[in-house]
Amino acid sequence: MDTNLRRRIRAGDHDAFGDLFDAYARSVYNHAYRLTGEWAVAEDVVSLTFLDAWRLRERLDEEGGSLRPWLLGIATNVTRNTRRAARRHTAAVARLPRDETVRDFADEIAGRLDDAAQLAVVRTALAKLRRAEREVLALCVWSGLDYAAAAEALGVPVGTVRSRLSRARTKLAKYMEPPSGNGQMRGDRTTAVRPIREGNR
To answer: Which long-range contacts (CB under 8 A, 24 or more apart) does 165-174 make?
Structure first.
């Protein structure tokens, strides 16, 4: 099925591209959210990923298996570019004259979530990882790609994927440890590294 889909996509078949979107949009969205932690940004990444996939369709190999690694590789690059653009935008806004601050209710609403504290711990721990380690963790652990598929998505050797994932898991285990002596953190510290399989189509 995927080989035939690859050929149709390369040929510019709009129906085939629609099938591609239907099959993998959720995986791309989940991957983008895990890299960014922001729903709105993840939605933008999905749109840009499939736009890039259409633009790059002629580079797609006619032979091969699942198209998921190809799309997640594009999504990873799009996320990098999106975050760079966001940093430039933030820096530009910071240089503008400041107006009176308008109260933001988003934080107040988020604070009511039962697991807000745990989410904060997880996001803080993830932020301490190198970008390459976060990307491998998102692909292998959360998106369920095997080493070879993750290597294909990132354009790196399989050994590099293995070593990055090992480092990421070791660091996360360390960063997720509760502070010594105060016992403030509750819950399972392995939540951030537990595989969530989405299926390899």
So the answer is: 165/133, 165/136, 165/137, 165/140, 165/141, 167/133, 168/129, 168/133, 168/134, 168/136, 168/137, 169/137, 169/193, 171/128, 171/129, 171/133, 172/125, 172/126, 172/129, 172/137
**Residuewise pLDDT in 10s, the chain (201 residues):** 567 889 999 999 999 999 999 999 999 999 999 888 888 889 999 999 999 999 999 998 888 888 999 999 999 999 988 877 766 656 666 666 655 544 454 555 545 544 556 666 677 777 888 888 888 888 888 888 888 988 988 899 999 999 998 888 888 888 777 665 554 444 444 444 444 455 555
